[in-house]
């Protein structure tokens, strides 16, 4: 760990007038905060260690001014948080809390505490204040605070979403209210974390001194943190009206082209009009390639361009504070790219040739229209020649409990490969004559006219969980979100039936639920068995989108996996394998009869997989607590069983040998 550097001593260097003074804060004490019950929790100490190791090995730290962390004072935290909140975080690691710590954490949304949480939270908040103050004073040109726990979800009176104190909000209010001598009157906060910065938004909802900008996955309120706070219609209130800008993605898979389109057509024009005195970035990197929670595709080059475009404002005074980002290699590469930018004042080498999604242009136009009465620069409609540059093919990420590829997503250290990895899939999908796109849309239109019953037997019996496959997002306990269907309409009907098939649990671990088995339905019927299934009446188009998400990490669906010819023949064949996704665990489409003349279909493993389970080639395994509870809630809310009966039902299915 490098010691606190003397900033003034650097100014004596003969090259100091040419070199930008870039501050870095890192403190190993923030690694003491960890989940006492889950060493594999995505928000773990290795996040900042991987960044720091990358910066040291590449020589970046030798080109920056390195500082130790500094704890925040309660009076500064009180600028945005209540006394209750401050008392909670300050005391949570004390011995007097002891065994009650886990119970207290359980009262909050996605929060854990341990003996090191208090110190880490104070260091995280204080470190962001420290570098923000030095940049505002002119001692540093820009800075990056490599901190954890993150902050942007933390609200005035409660921690939330891995966040204990709202670090960026505290530093913002500190500059505005505690240091009037610095003449910082207008602050732009850019939140590019893949999740909406709900806490930061609420803290400056009525404050015209702060322009809060957040680009995030939203999927109509189904993606974490959920609800309507992240909608584009949430623009601020009273004197703060128009100073809150949300750009809510409708789907995952967004990459460089999508983000840069938002920069060029929303953020940069508004920033010019706002003319901030300093910029604070809630720098989450969970929209990066390979992130297990984000499901987007921003490359290190993409982040570098986004940052470079902001350097033209506020005299280049930019403070970056780490938020999310859970792929260790990806987060390290992305942070390094950003620090290279603020050191050199130019993007790293790279290129981007992909087009934004069609949905991206739709969102951009909706945001511009909503804010046009506040910002003159957004009043003009974008020309057709700009918005026509788009791709229609949705990239679907396998986010379900049924992820069959458990190999960690990797991001190459070779930048050129990073660029190729993101650009090539989009380039391949860009068919100039439009024929593939036309065929795909015609196919979808036909499938959307046909209804089927999708019979669910695992976590999808819980309606909220199933809707993740339709609208996108995730529910409590899931480690990865779903992208959703192109048609986000809810099921037309829901009913329940029992079937003479065996329910069992197998596999040891999945990306979405972590360690533990997931549910399968034995493909062969047995009159001695009885399983509860929840039936959703959805379109054949939606069924295909669910079939994709159950089985693959990405797929270009120019033709359906299960088409109308398959639907006509399955009554006689009883089951059909979706060959395009045959490596998935749930590609076997099973016919279970009809309900009101409409076919009932489910998806499960093959008989050969059952044989492998019996032989021990693939492990039988009990479900994890979160997964089991999701199934139990589905059975209880569906009024099929009491909680006690549902628990017994799952336990018996998990304990019986095949």
UniProtKB/TrEMBL annotation:
<keyword id="KW-0479">Metal-binding</keyword>
<keyword id="KW-0862">Zinc</keyword>
<dbReference type="InterPro" id="IPR037138">
    <property type="entry name" value="His_deacetylse_dom_sf"/>
</dbReference>
<protein>
    <recommendedName>
        <fullName>histone deacetylase</fullName>
        <ecNumber>3.5.1.98</ecNumber>
    </recommendedName>
</protein>
<dbReference type="Pfam" id="PF00850">
    <property type="entry name" value="Hist_deacetyl"/>
</dbReference>
<keyword id="KW-0156">Chromatin regulator</keyword>
<keyword id="KW-0678">Repressor</keyword>
<dbReference type="GO" id="GO:0141221">
    <property type="term" value="F:histone deacetylase activity, hydrolytic mechanism"/>
</dbReference>
<dbReference type="GO" id="GO:0050793">
    <property type="term" value="P:regulation of developmental process"/>
</dbReference>
<keyword id="KW-0804">Transcription</keyword>
<dbReference type="InterPro" id="IPR023696">
    <property type="entry name" value="Ureohydrolase_dom_sf"/>
</dbReference>
<dbReference type="GO" id="GO:0040029">
    <property type="term" value="P:epigenetic regulation of gene expression"/>
</dbReference>
<keyword id="KW-0539">Nucleus</keyword>
<dbReference type="InterPro" id="IPR000286">
    <property type="entry name" value="HDACs"/>
</dbReference>
<keyword id="KW-0805">Transcription regulation</keyword>
<dbReference type="GO" id="GO:0046872">
    <property type="term" value="F:metal ion binding"/>
</dbReference>
<dbReference type="GO" id="GO:0000118">
    <property type="term" value="C:histone deacetylase complex"/>
</dbReference>
<dbReference type="InterPro" id="IPR023801">
    <property type="entry name" value="His_deacetylse_dom"/>
</dbReference>
<dbReference type="GO" id="GO:0005737">
    <property type="term" value="C:cytoplasm"/>
</dbReference>
<comment type="similarity">
    <text>Belongs to the histone deacetylase family. HD type 2 subfamily.</text>
</comment>
<keyword id="KW-0378">Hydrolase</keyword>
<feature type="domain" description="Histone deacetylase">
    <location>
        <begin position="41"/>
        <end position="341"/>
    </location>
</feature>
């Amino acid at each position: 760990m490098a010691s606190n550097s003397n900033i003034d001593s650097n100014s004596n260097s003969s090259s100091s007038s040419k070199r930008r003074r870039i501050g870095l804060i890192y403190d190993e004490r923030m690694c003491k905060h960890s989940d006492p019950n889950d060493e594999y929790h995505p928000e773990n100490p290795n996040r900042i260690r991987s960044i720091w190791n990358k910066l040291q090995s590449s020589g970046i730290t030798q080109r920056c001014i390195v500082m130790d962390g500094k704890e925040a004072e309660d009076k500064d935290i009180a600028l945005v948080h209540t006394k209750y909140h401050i008392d909670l975080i300050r005391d949570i690691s004390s011995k007097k809390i002891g065994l009650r710590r886990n119970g207290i954490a359980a009262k909050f949304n996605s929060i854990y505490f341990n003996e090191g949480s208090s110190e880490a939270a104070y260091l995280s908040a204080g470190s962001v204040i420290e570098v923000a103050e030095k940049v505002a004073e002119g001692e540093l040109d820009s800075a990056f605070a490599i901190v954890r726990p993150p902050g942007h979800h933390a609200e005035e009176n409660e921690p939330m979403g891995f966040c204990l104190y709202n670090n960026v909000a505290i530093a913002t209010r500190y500059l505005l209210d505690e240091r009037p001598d610095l003449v910082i009157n207008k602050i732009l906060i850019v939140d590019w974390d893949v999740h909406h910065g709900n806490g930061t938004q609420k803290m400056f909802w009525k404050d015209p001194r702060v322009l809060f900008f957040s680009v995030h996955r939203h999927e109509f309120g189904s993606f974490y943190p959920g609800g309507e706070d992240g909608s584009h219609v949430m623009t601020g209130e009273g004197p703060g009206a128009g100073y809150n800008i949300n750009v809510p993605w409708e789907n995952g898979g967004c990459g460089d082209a999508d983000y840069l389109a938002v920069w060029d057509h929303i953020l940069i024009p508004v920033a010019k009009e706002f003319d901030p005195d300093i910029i604070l970035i809630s720098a989450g990197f969970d929209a990066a390639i390979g992130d297990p929670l984000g499901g987007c595709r921003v490359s290190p080059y993409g982040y570098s361009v986004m940052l470079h475009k902001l350097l033209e404002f506020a005299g280049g005074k930019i403070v970056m504070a780490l938020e999310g980002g859970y792929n260790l290699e990806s987060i390290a590469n992305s942070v390094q790219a950003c620090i290279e930018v603020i050191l050199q004042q130019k993007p790293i080498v790279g290129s981007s040739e992909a087009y934004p999604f069609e949905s991206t242009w739709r969102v951009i136009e909706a945001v511009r229209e909503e804010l046009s009465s506040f910002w003159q620069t957004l009043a003009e409609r974008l020309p057709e020649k700009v918005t026509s540059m788009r791709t229609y093919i949705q990239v679907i990420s396998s986010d379900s409990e049924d992820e069959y590829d458990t190999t960690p997503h990797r991001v190459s250290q070779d930048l050129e490969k990073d660029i190729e990895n993101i650009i090539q899939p989009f380039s391949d999908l860009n068919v100039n004559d439009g024929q593939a796109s036309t065929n795909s849309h015609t196919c979808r239109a036909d499938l959307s006219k046909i209804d089927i019953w999708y019979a669910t037997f695992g976590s999808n019996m819980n309606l909220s969980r199933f809707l993740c496959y339709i609208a996108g997002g995730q529910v409590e306990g899931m480690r990865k979100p779903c992208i959703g269907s192109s048609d986000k309409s809810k099921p037309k009907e829901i009913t329940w039936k029992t079937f003479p098939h065996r329910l069992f649990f197998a596999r040891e671990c999945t990306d979405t639920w972590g360690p533990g088995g997931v549910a399968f339905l034995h493909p062969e019927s047995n009159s001695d068995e009885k399983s509860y299934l929840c039936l959703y009446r959805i379109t054949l188009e939606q069924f295909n989108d669910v079939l994709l998400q159950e089985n693959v990490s990405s797929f270009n669906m120019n033709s359906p996996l299960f088409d109308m010819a398959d639907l006509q023949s399955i009554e006689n064949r009883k089951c059909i394998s979706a060959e395009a996704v045959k490596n998935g665990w749930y590609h076997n489409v099973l016919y279970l009869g009809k309900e009101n003349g409409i076919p009932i279909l489910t998806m499960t493993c093959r008989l050969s997989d059952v044989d492998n389970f019996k032989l021990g080639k693939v492990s039988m395994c009990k479900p994890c607590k979160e997964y089991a509870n999701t199934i139990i809630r589905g059975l209880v809310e569906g009024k099929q069983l009491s909680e006690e009966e549902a628990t017994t039902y799952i336990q018996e299915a998990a304990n019986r040998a095949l």
